[in-house]
UniProtKB/TrEMBL annotation:
GO terms for molecular function: cysteine-type peptidase activity. The lineage of its organism: Bacteria, Bacillati, Bacillota, Bacilli, Bacillales. PROSITE patterns: NLPC_P60, SH3B. One of its GO terms (biological process) is proteolysis. Residues 220-344 form the NlpC/P60 domain. InterPro entries: Cu_amine_oxidase-like_N (IPR012854), Mao_N_sf (IPR036582), NLP_P60_dom (IPR000064), Papain-like_cys_pep_sf (IPR038765), Peptidase_C40 (IPR051202), SH3-like_bac-type (IPR003646). Residues 147-213 form the SH3b domain. Residues 1-24 form the signal peptide. Belongs to the peptidase C40 family. This is Copper amine oxidase. Keywords: Hydrolase, Protease, Signal, Thiol protease.
Length: 344
């Protein structure tokens, strides 16, 4: 019995040791770091390093991506970068760089790794006039160049300290129409992180009425947000002529009007044939989530509207039996299809 127990304990010990080894190996595996410059992902020549919270990247990639001229002294291992009136000089391995002749301390020195000269991303980018933010949740670095103040505020909007409109306490400033901001990143379908021209960083609503900022990724997120919100009303009863001022019942156009207004503050006309005059026309082969599909119905050219939900599906209502539902944009519907319009 004793021998058997000893054998079992030994086996258990080996199992625990193997498990600990696996977990230690998994914990030691660094999370990949993604780097974005003005919304475009950079592809460094070597894997970025994260040393005590400081991200190091290949030197040439970092300087050239931000428009800096570069010279390299191989004997002294010194790089000199120039951009406009800025000159940055750094010797690999040193804890100090010189910015326009003035010494600047680095929290982590540059180093050789994977055969490349690696230097601190934040220090170099900010020295060149860019803004750098770190998203720990995704392991992403977002760099916004100083030349990126190309987004205009089109309707007075609050700059906030957090992506939340429920509290007035987080309001930093009111940005009037015509203000310019630099978009640092798209937080989600409803918020942008931005920097103002006087270098205040905060959050703006990304709803279409407030700025002229657009990107493929944001429009996709906003289309998905429309569908997610509309699904809250699945099976809600269909009533022709339902008032758009309530959500107990819908007809096709009151449903579309409510979804766009509540999700993105986009105000559409009440009836489908007037909604079909809004936005821009797109072809069936160009459809994107959130586009509107219009069909003939009730003996009129345009008598029904649906929201394209992606993957050849559409979200709409027209039947007392089905209420709000999702179904295929199939041949039955394509026979009655008239046009598609993009509102975003």
């Amino acid at each position: 019995m004793t021998a058997r127990r000893t054998a079992l304990l030994s086996l258990l010990g080996l199992t625990l040791l193997a498990s600990a080894s696996v977990h230690a190996e998994a914990a030691a595996t660094p999370k990949p770091i993604s780097i974005y410059l003005d919304g475009q992902q950079l592809q460094p020549e070597a894997r970025p390093l994260n040393i005590s919270g400081t991200v190091l990247v290949p030197m040439r990639n970092l300087f050239e991506a931000q428009g800096a001229g570069l010279s390299w002294n191989n004997t002294s291992k010194t790089v000199t970068a120039t951009k406009g009136g800025t000159t940055l000089t750094y010797t690999l391995g040193s804890a100090t760089a010189r910015l326009n002749g003035q010494p600047i301390a680095l929290s982590v020195p540059g180093q050789l790794s994977q055969g490349y000269s690696m230097i601190p991303l934040r220090f170099v980018s900010e020295a060149l006039g860019s803004t750098v933010t770190w998203d720990a949740a995704t392991g992403s670095v977002f760099i916004s160049s100083a030349a990126a103040y190309n987004t205009s505020v089109t309707w007075g909007v609050n700059l906030r300290s957090s992506p939340d409109s429920d509290s007035e306490a987080n309001t930093l400033a009111l940005l009037p129409a015509g203000s310019k901001v630099q978009v640092i990143r798209e937080v989600n379908a409803l918020w942008l992180e931005v920097q103002t021209e006087d270098h205040v960083t905060g959050y703006l609503s990304s709803k279409p009425k407030y700025t002229d900022y657009k990107s493929g990724s944001l429009l996709q997120k906003q289309g998905e947000a429309l569908i997610a919100y509309g699904k809250k009303y699945l099976n809600a009863p269909y009533v022709f002529g339902a008032s758009p001022d309530q959500t107990d019942t819908f007809d096709c156009s009151s449903f579309v009007k409510r979804v766009f207004a509540d999700t993105l503050s986009v105000e559409l006309p009440r009836v489908s044939y007037d909604q079909a005059l809004e936005g821009t026309e797109v072809g069936v082969d160009e459809l994107r989530t959130g586009d509107l599909l219009f069909f003939s119905a009730r003996g009129i050219d345009i008598g029904h509207v649906a929201i394209y939900a992606g993957n050849n599906q559409m979200l709409h209502t027209y039947s007392k039996e089905l209420g709000v539902h999702i179904e295929a944009f199939d041949s039955q519907w394509k026979k009655r299809f008239v046009t598609a319009r993009r509102m975003l």
